[in-house]
Design goal:
Elements (H helix, E strand, L loop, with lengths): L3 E4 L9 H14 L6 H6 L5 H12 L5 H19 L7 H10 L3 E5 L4 H11 L7 E3 L12 H9 L7 E5 L2 H10 L2 E4 L8 H4 L4 E2 L6 H10 L1
Parallel strand pairs: 1-2, 1-4, 2-3, 4-5, 5-6
């Protein structure tokens, strides 16, 4: 029986995936690399442990992933300090419904805890989640299953009792491997046919997840 909803953050709760995509490319260009949007898309929700060798396999060993990542964070910080963070459509409706149905919920993100607090605090929703599992807490991040395994365990649940909401293929892979119920709300790209085989549902917005939850609870 469904008992919890696990949320990714960037591109799912916060409309920040497009910013990550933009600032990865700008930062890499400052370091002399022609990083394009498709390269940034490939590492969405991917932990640095796996993203660094992936990008080095494309751009060579001289691609200083961690230095470029630091610069990307600086660019992100400047933008968000000035403009703030926007919530993805349907967030507040979904959180209200989760509460009404008596379900637990947690954030399971590749982003570090400090930034997670910053973003969710701006939206006024940090304390609406029962727990927060962040990238700096997990040794083997997405697409490995550890993030979602930890999220379920810290709620005292089996992964099969949890819906996992994701916008990216790497996140869906993590949720699927963990044994959660994967639901995709696409942000910057649509699922391909192989990914669709791993999905319980595809929704347009977070509000569209409400009937999916109800169908699992009421069947």
């Amino acid at each position: 029986m469904l008992k919890a909803v696990l949320f990714d953050m960037d591109g799912l709760i916060t409309d920040t995936e497009k910013l990550l995509n933009r600032f990865w490319c700008i930062s890499a260009k400052e370091f002399g690399f022609d990083m394009r949007p498709e390269h940034a898309l490939a590492i969405r929700s991917m932990s640095p442990k796996y993203a660094a060798p992936h990008l080095q396999s494309i751009f060579g060993e001289d691609f200083d992933y961690y230095a470029i990542r630091v610069r990307r964070k600086q660019l992100m910080n400047d933008h968000i300090t000035e403009h703030g963070v926007e919530a993805k459509a349907g967030l507040y409706e979904l959180l209200d419904h989760i509460g009404e149905r008596g379900l637990k919920c947690a954030v399971c993100t590749a982003t570090d805890l400090e930034r997670t607090k910053w973003y969710l605090g701006m939206l006024g929703v940090f304390d609406r989640f029962d727990d927060h599992i962040c990238g700096d807490m997990i040794a083997n991040g997405k697409p490995k299953p550890d993030t979602y395994l930890t999220g379920a365990a810290r709620l005292g649940l089996d992964p099969s009792e949890c819906i996992a909401l994701e916008d990216s293929p790497n996140g869906i892979e993590s949720a699927f491997r963990a044994g959660c119920i994967p639901v995709m709300i696409p942000d910057l790209s649509q699922p391909d046919e192989e990914l669709k085989k791993k999905l319980h549902a595809v929704c347009g917005t977070l509000a569209d997840v409400i009937p999916v939850i109800d169908s699992l609870l009421d069947k």
